[in-house]
Design brief:
This protein folds into three domains: 226 residues, FAD/NAD(P)-binding domain (3-Layer(bba) Sandwich), CATH 3.50.50.60; 111 residues, 3-Layer(bba) Sandwich (FAD/NAD(P)-binding domain); 104 residues, Enolase-like, domain 1 (2-Layer Sandwich). β20 and β21 form a beta hairpin. α1 runs parallel beside α8. The chain has 475 residues and is α/β, with parallel strands linked by helices. Strands 1-2-3-4-5 form a five-stranded mixed beta barrel. The protein has a five-stranded parallel β-sheet with strand order 7-14-8-9-10. It is globular. It has 13 helices and 21 strands. Its main location: cytoplasm. It is an enzyme of class 1 (oxidoreductase). It comes from Sphaerotilus microaerophilus.
């Protein structure tokens, strides 16, 4: 017998579980269906982000950064260590513990907010009078009926053509997070977020890391000034980069992996590594969703077609997060999940994709919101730029981390902030001020005239805003 709900959410990642909770807060009878399993076969809600993405990668980044500080920087603080060692198994176990805490936290939030959770794969069965019938295939099969359906099924790692992930030698983000010992040589195809973060983890622990990138330059989505600084710093740290490469083949038949490629000059090259991380983007996940049963429209890339408010072509069916257009970021999915729940309730949920911040959690961190300098030039927008280095910030000096800068871009006439770009310590936290400012159409002068705590890294944000009018105080 079918179980009746007002809203059924398919997918328990950031977009799904947050959307389910918000819908429940608004008074709806809500169910969330998610099939992710932990190592014991139990439910592990949180999607890619919690299980094999944002959360575990940050745990490994933190552990490896502690190790590098102990190995290379503690001496500056008068701290001496003998026989420093890294227990990789313990590091991975801690990461797994952090993931479980987040899984359990989501299950607790479902219970607290009276969201019914079903562990299994959700798929469309058919349209019924006043809604849709959803099949749940899992340990216990269920049939659910809902007036409104929110699809939040996320994305999957994109594989190289003809090269499947075995998660032992050829790794997606999943396998990259489960490496059990430091590889002597690690190859990374793709210099995006996952490639840089995982490459940084194992480089810190002693691996020789080579990154192969098809694009002709580094981090072309970021502001050019930030990208140039980042490449300089990462190269100095020991990461090796090659740009403009074309992968010819990957041979994983031996003990390691051999990548054959053509370099930017047309020369044929080979790279032999112990393990290879393939980080060339992600594809929308509609596997098993059975969209044909109800006529749900997908685009040529397999993503679900939605309008600006996340409505699909079907009445009462919505889609959010990685499975639709826009940046594949957990926080974007969360905002869309909340907005859709509010729209179902007749409210006016809102998400501005132009103000979604981007973050790379390397050391130094990289974060930005808004348009880059090269985008403004291409669009013919008259702008002013202001930049302030962390080298001139007292708190950064005390931390011993003065790499990078904060950069403001503002409209030449109105002074409205058009973009903020940061490379340096705590960039992921500092960018939040820029998001708030830009959401309220603030000017650079608005930030420049706000009192910031001293000594703090946030003073660099204020100084960069002052720099727009060439009146920095500490540089």
């Amino acid at each position: 017998m079918s179980k009746q709900f007002d809203v059924v959410v398919i997918g328990g990642g950031p977009g799904g579980y947050i959307g389910a909770i918000r819908a429940a807060q608004l008074g709806f009878n809500v169910a969330c269906v998610d099939e992710w399993k932990n190592d014991k076969g139990g439910p592990a809600p949180g999607g890619t982000c919690t299980n094999v993405g944002c959360i575990p990668s940050k745990a490994l980044l933190q552990s490896s950064e502690h190790y590098e500080h102990a190995a290379k920087h503690f001496g500056e603080h008068g701290i001496s260590l003998d026989n420093l060692q890294m227990d990789v198994a313990k590091m991975v176990a801690r990461k797994n513990g952090v993931v479980k805490q987040n899984n359990d936290g989501i299950l607790y939030l479902f219970k607290k907010n009276k969201v019914s959770f079903f562990h299994g794969r959700g798929s469309f069965a058919k349209a019924v009078e006043g809604g849709y019938e959803i099949n749940v295939t899992g340990a216990a099969n269920e049939t659910l009926t809902a007036k409104q359906v929110i699809i939040a099924t996320g994305s999957n790692a994109r594989a190289l053509p003809g090269v499947a992930f075995d998660e032992e030698k050829v790794l997606s983000n999943d396998g990259a997070l489960r490496i059990g010992a430091v590889p002597t040589k690690l190859g990374v195809i793709g210099s995006g977020v996952i490639g840089l973060e995982m490459g940084s983890v194992w480089r810190r622990l002693g691996a020789e890391v080579t990154v192969l990138e098809a694009m002709p330059a580094f981090l072309m989505a970021a502001d050019e000034g930030v990208a140039k600084e980042a490449l300089k710093v990462f190269t100095k740290q020991g990461l090796k980069f090659e740009f403009g490469v074309k992968i010819a083949g990957v041979d994983a038949s031996g003990d390691g992996v051999v990548v054959s490629y053509t370099d930017a000059k047309g020369g044929e090259q080979k790279l032999a590594v112990d393990k290879l991380i393939v980080s060339i983007g992600r594809t929308a996940n509609t596997i098993g969703l059975n969209p044909e049963a109800v006529g749900l429209k997908l685009d040529e890339r397999g993503a679900i077609v939605v309008d600006d408010e996340c409505r699909t072509n079907l009445p009462g069916v919505w889609a959010v997060g990685d499975v639709v257009r826009g940046p594949m970021l957990a926080h974007k999915a969360e905002e869309e999940g909340v907005a859709v729940a509010e729209r179902i309730a007749g409210q006016h949920g809102h998400v501005d994709l132009a103000l979604v911040p981007y973050v790379i959690y390397t050391s130094p961190e990289i974060a930005w919101v808004g348009r880059t300098e090269q985008q403004l030039k291409a669009d013919g927008v008259a702008y002013k730029a202001g930049q302030f280095p962390f080298l001139a910030n007292g708190r950064a000096r005390a931390l011993g981390d003065t790499t990078g800068f904060v950069k403001f871009l503002a409209d030449a006439k109105t002074d409205e902030i058009l973009g903020v770009h940061i490379i340096g310590p705590s960039a992921s936290e500092l960018v939040a001020e820029a998001c708030v400012a830009m959401a309220f159409k603030a000017s650079a002068e608005d930030i420049a005239r706000i009192c910031h705590a001293h000594p703090s890294l946030s003073e660099s944000t204020k100084e960069a805003a002052l720099a727009v009018d060439k009146r920095t105080l500490n540089f």
